[in-house]
Amino acid sequence: MRSKKIVAEMSGVLALLIAVVMMLVNQPHIKAATVDEVKAKGELVMGTAPDYPPYEFLATVDGTQKVVGMDVQIGQDIANKLGVKLVVKAMDFDSLLVALETKKIDMVISGMSATEERKKSVDFSDPYYKSKQMFVIRKDEASELKSAEDIKDKVVGVQIGSMQQDILKSSFPQAKSSALTNVNDLLLSLKSNKVSAFLTESAVAEAYVSHNSDITSLSADVNEEDMSGTAIAFSKNSEDLVATANSAIKNITDNNLISKYLAAAGNYLESPSAQQQGPWQLVLSYWPYFFSGLGTTLLITIISIFFGVLLGVVFALFRISRFKLLNMVTAAFVEFIRGTPLMIQIMFVYFGVGAFVNIPALISGIIAVSINSAAYVSEIIRGGINSVPKGQTEAARSLGLSAKDTFTSVTFPQAIKNIWPSLGNEFISLIKETSIVSIIGVADLIYQLKAVQSVTYQGVIPIVIAMIIYFVITYSLTKLLNHFEGKMKHE
After folding, report:
1. d(Cα 16, Cα 32) in Å, to the nearest integer?
2. How far apart are CA 193 and CA 195, in angstroms?
3. Lowest-confidence range among 182-191, 221-230, 295-304, 474-483?
4. Is the whole-model pTM more than 0.85?
5. CB–CB of 87/489 below 8 Å?
6. Whole-angstrom Cα distance, residue 124 to residue 238?
């Protein structure tokens, strides 16, 4: 009997998986945006990963947090050509092409190189920038690592999906690659001796070296002519948008505006007061970033807990229902959610479902986190209900209580007492799990942590501050839950 139930659940999960795959395969072809469409909606949406100063990073402008940098200036030039407003959407670098494919954005300007592999999936503009490549190393190893030749057999950090990853593979085949999401992580790897160097563009290297006294840089001796260069990515068959971008790039090149844009970006990074501050004071001066991120994290957590519990109760009741079809479908759905990573679920809701319905990043994050929590809450509640002795139910029914009254007055109250510790652990875990929503550009605490890292060039201190904030929240919630648990025990 038990084996048949397992087979039924597995069949349900498999059927659900097939349905999801078929939905993705049969989704309508998303046509590339055209100049006319962009003009009609009055805005050009640019996707970028704002963790790469001076090209793109977050800064406070007139009291408002904005993405600024050289690439944003180039995006603004293209928007001006079209006579529309530029809208900048921030997300992780490795999510940008997915966002472009699902039409969440109209173009990608994020220091992206126009490789042959990428050209198979997207259209690129003409290159707008070719930069010298630099290795960033620890200053105490400068006497040993005097040239690129000395690094060829070392462990070298590169950003995932970046031009530097391709350069390292082709020009330094003996080097061992350590690919990470962003440059801040590469800096941390370097300082913690995980890598001997990391490879990046000269402007980025110089910016980090000028803000960290324990690192230095040296030339990678890579021929610029062999590099594809940095370009703007558009959806396939976006010829008119590419032509507009190329026209703007020609104007930028003819008037030598790149150096001007880099200098303007540097103004956001350099401030006399910041130079006089120590690392801790500098990072703490960005407390509004942490405060804003904390507010978003708590908002997502509170809403997700509410809907997670609500849906969890419904799922649990469906699981114990006598209707076999309802029971089987719910079981399959719950097991599918519990068997897939939350990060994938967030990306699926934002990019996958977003191909049919345009759901904002914050709402997508809340939906994914709520459903994920509901799957776990449902199993906790189901286990609590099943843990109540059957004799309690039989006694209540023998006293004349209806099935509904028995459940609400006898079974469920006892189940809540049994499951409260597990439910509390789920709530605490939920606070920490919301950190994943930053991958789609939701400005939660982790997103703001990365922003502070980019602006201050400090890797560890922002992490420490975020850890303390998370600890204070989870510890306070633990104490509150323990208080209610103690009251339940004395009832």
Report:
1. 30
2. 5
3. 221-230
4. no
5. no
6. 9
